[in-house]
Amino acid sequence: MAIKYVFAQDAAGLEKIQASAVKSVTKAREQVQIAAVATIKHAHVHGDWTYAQRLVDALGNTINGAALVEWFKTYGGLETDDNGFIGWKGAQHIEDNFQDAKAKMWWELKKANPFKGYSLEDALKKVIKEHEAMQKKVVGLTEEDKAKVNMQVNDATIRQVLALCNFEAIMTDDGEEQEAA
Questions:
Q1: DSSP per residue over 6-20, as a string?
Q2: Shared-domain flag, residues 104 and 18
Q3: pLDDT class for 173, splitting at 50, 70, 90?
Q4: Where are the extended beta strands (E) located within 100-152?
């Protein structure tokens, strides 16, 4: 697809180009909303929910597809797996939610990322890996860039890391390491 670029001669011209882009996107989002509502209405009347996948696929990465999928799940009762839509909750779900579907714009839904947990060990391994990569990279840097690399860690940070790792050691005033009782 060839894009015909236009340029502004002044700020007013640029504002006009930007306003046109905003208007186009606003209109496109509304058109997707109309298509989405028509899609669940079709599913309600004909029992065919497969057109939802066609719309999502056809739009591709031109929109926030996750938000549209979430809208279909919420208002169309569609069910998904990692490959797309796999079923639906039936016509009654759409009938019960149809007015809300018309009122709630698809782009207002943001798919919530489920909490994936946290691993301190994985986080520390990532830091170690980044440190090792930087040790290799610093060799080839200019002196100016080398000056931007700080490989030193202060005592307070070391103590915090040791505490995170449940390392039962403390430093005495004279610098000797002693095990905690």
A1: ---SSHHHHHHHHHH
A2: yes
A3: very low
A4: none
Residue with tokens 């090792």: 132
C-alpha 133, offset from chain centre: 27
Residue 61 DSSP symbol: G
Which residue, chain included where needed, has tokens 């019960």? Answer: 96
Structural domain tally of the chain?
Answer: 2
Domain that holds residue 139: 120-179
- Please check whether residue 80 is in contact with residue 89, taking contact to mean a CB–CB distance below 8 angstroms: no
> 48-73 pLDDT, tens per residue?
999 999 999 999 988 888 899 999 99
* pLDDT value at 27 more than 90: yes
Report if pTM > 0.70.
no
Decide if 179 contacts 168 (C-beta within 8 A): yes
Q: What token pair was written down for 21?
A: 């882009």
115 falls within a domain: no
